[in-house]
Specification:
CATH architecture of one domain: Sandwich
Strand content: 25-35%
Helix content: 10-25%
CATH topology of one domain: Immunoglobulin-like
Number of helices: 2
Largest sheet: 4 strands, antiparallel
Shape: rod-shaped
Oligomer: single chain
CATH class of one domain: Mainly Beta
Distance between the termini: 157 Å
Order of helices and strands: HHEEEEEEEE
Number of strands: 8
Length: about 240
């Protein structure tokens, strides 16, 4: 048998595996695989989170701007002007012209009362004390019967005061009259003062009989003030 000659083979170059391994090692060393710690000391996921948290800046929310109204300053007490006092309205004064006459029924007669003053009613105020004069007389048929005033009384109810109380027997049959006068006291803050007058009359039932019928006659007189008094005027600031 003819011996077979094996084909000559070219010798293979040895492959340096360590070099490839080293290259792979170097490649891995230069790259960091996500989720894994790097070979070069690069931080892993937890370390990266800490780094990001350390370098992050927290921004607090800015509150919305609010508008506070500026309070209006109160005026200085020294500059406050007090309100003006209300205008004084004079009350009815029956003696505004200086005199007045009242006629009051007295049975079959009429009691006539004349009032007057010697003062100026336009100057009267609640602080003044006017003097009021009066004269009372009987008007009617003259049948000869005697007529007498046995009590004359004057009150100012708003002042709880009795201004006159005259007791006696004073004839008022013509031609006689009964005269008197009263002083009206001050009445602070009032616009007027009303007087209540009482006449107690005795009228003879027949001429010379000496028998009398009694009758009370009432009258009122209103005294009004033209100007306010000191208690009504608002003081200046």
């Amino acid at each position: 048998m003819t011996p077979r000659h094996s084909a000559s083979r070219q010798p293979r170059r040895p492959v340096s595996i360590p070099v490839i391994a080293a290259a792979v090692t170097l490649t891995l060393a230069g790259c960091a695989v996500p989720g894994l710690p790097g070979a070069t000391g690069a931080p892993g996921a937890p370390e990266m989170q800490r780094v990001v948290a350390a370098g992050a800046h927290t921004t607090d929310p800015v509150p919305a701007a609010t508008h506070t109204p500026t309070p209006t300053p109160s005026p200085s007490p020294a500059l406050v002007t007090p309100p003006p006092a209300p205008a004084w309205v004079p009350a009815k004064n029956e003696l505004g012209t200086g005199s007045v006459t009242h006629r009051v029924d007295a049975a079959s007669h009429t009691l006539i009362i004349d009032y007057w003053t010697n003062e100026d009613p336009a100057s009267w105020t609640p602080d003044t004390s006017p003097l009021i004069r009066l004269n009372a007389r009987i008007d009617g048929p003259d049948n000869g019967n005697a007529i007498k005033v046995t009590r004359f009384n004057v009150r100012a109810d708003s002042l709880a005061a009795v201004l006159a109380n005259d007791a006696g027997e004073f004839t008022v049959a013509p031609p006689f009259t009964y005269s008197s006068g009263v002083v009206v006291p001050p009445n602070p803050k009032a616009h007027s003062t009303q007087l209540l007058l009482t006449f107690d009359l005795l009228t003879e039932t027949a001429p010379g009989s000496g028998i009398y019928a009694r009758q009370t006659v009432l009258d009122t007189l209103n005294i009004g003030y033209a100007k306010p008094g000191s208690a009504t005027v608002t003081p200046a600031p």
